[in-house]
Amino acid sequence: MDVDKLSIDPWSSTQSTDYSRIIQQFGLSDFNNLSLPNPSHLHRRGIIFAHRDLDLVLDAQKTGENFGVLTGLMPSGRMHLGHSMVIEQVKWFQNLGGDVTIAVADLESQATRGISLAKGRKIALQEYVSNYAALGLNPSLTNVYFQSSRAEVQRLGFQLGKRTNLSEFESIYGFRGDTNLAHVQAPMVQVGDILHPQIDEYGGLRPIVVPVGVDQDPHLRLTRGVASKSNWFNIKTNTGRGILIGLSVHDDNAELFGQQPNGRIDKSKVGEIFAKVVKRLTEIGFSDINSNPKQGTVIVPSATKRDMNKIRIELLKLERSLGGMGLLTPSSTYHHFAVGLTGQKMSSSKPKTTIFLDDDIQTITKKIKKAYSGGQSTIEEHRRLGGNPDIDVAYQYMMYFFEHDDKHLAEINSDYRNGKLLAGEMKQLCIDKATEWMENHIELRDQSQHLVDDFLADDSK
Ligand code: TRP
Fold this sequence. Notes:
10 strands; binds tryptophan; 6-stranded mixed β-sheet
C-alpha cells in the first residue's frame, strides 16, 4: 500500500487533520473563488474549509431557485459541541432559503455501534433534536426522519447498489472479506439518505448540499459516483470548445435508446432521443446545436462551463420524463474538527475531551480549567515569549463556538501571542463566554422543548 496515501475511515476514532492534503488527495475545492452571502463565523475563520460543487447551490440561491440541505446524525452518544457545527451550517443554509432534511442514522447506529432502533430513537430525540431549536433551527422548516422508517431511502440505496461493487467498497472504506454485511449496507443507506430529497415525493429535482465533517467524505464520494453512473446522459466539456453530450446505455434504458436484443441499433429510436435532447437545449436558449446521432454525440459549441449545470439539470428532467431516476450529484461542505479539551480528539465516549450540550456550568468550568494550554510554563516566560493560541484549547473554543465578534477575537489572539494575556486569563475569558453561551442555550432549550415533535417528519413521529 502507498504509505503516502491518506485514508479516511468514517467509523474510526482517530482522524487526520492534515486538511490541505485531504483537499488535494480527494479533490475537494477550497473557498477561494466563491463569494458567500452573509458568511457565518465558521466561514469567516476558515473552519468550514472545503466543498464540492457548492457553486451549484449558491447559484440556485442567487436566482431564487429551490435548493435543499441534507445531513445526518448517528444516534450513539450524547450531543457535544463538535456536533453543533453541522447544525450551524444547516442553519446558515436554512436562513438562505434552503429546505432542510435531517436523517437519524438509526440503521447505521444499529449496524456499526450495536444500538437498538428503540434506543437510537430515544438518543436522537433527547440528545439531538431537543437542542435544535435552541441552536437556531426552525422546526416548521426542518424535517427530521429515521432511516428505519423511510422506505424510499432504503429502496434507493438498494437500487443504486447496482452502480458500485465490492472493489469500490474495498478502496473507499478498506472493507475486507470478514467485514460484516450490515456494515457494508450502512453506506448504501446513506446514499439513499443523501439522494432521496431529489425524488418527487420529497421535493423534486434540485441541488442538495450535504454539510458534514470531513470524516464523512467517503460517503459523498460513493454517492456522487453512483449518482453520476446512474445518469442516462453524459455531459462534459468538448475538447474543441463548448459542451459535449453523449448517451449512457443501461439495462433500464437500452430499449428506449435503440439497442435491440440482437445487437443492432434501431436508428429511428436513437433519432427520437436525439431530437428530444435538441428540443430541451433549444428550450433553455441554445440555438447552435450539432446533433450527430450516428456518432452518438450532441455538441453545443457556444455553451461555456458555467452553462454546464443548466444543461445537466435540463437533461436530468428529460431523463425523468423518460422513466429514469435523474439524480443530480450532491454538493457538500466540510468543517475542521475542533480539538478535544485535552488536546486529543473530541469524543462522546471520553467526557473530558468535550463539552456536552447538557453539561452544567460547574462541569464546564472545571473542564475548561483543565484544558490543554498554549501558554508557557511560568508567568515570566509567558510574558517574555508569549503564548500560542493555535494550540490553546480555550482560545480555540472561543474561535469555534463562543466568541462571534471577530474584532474581539483578534485582540485576544494578539494579546496572547505577545504575552499580555496569560494562560489562566485566557481560560477565564473562555469560561465567561462559555457560561454566557450555555445559559442562553439552556434557556432557549427549555422554552423550545415543546417543539421537538414539530421537527419530526410525518413518517417518523
Ligand atoms: N454517517 C453519519 C455519521 O456517522 C450519519 C449520517 C447518516 C449522515 N446519513 C447521513 C450524514 C447523510 C450526512 C448525510 O454521523
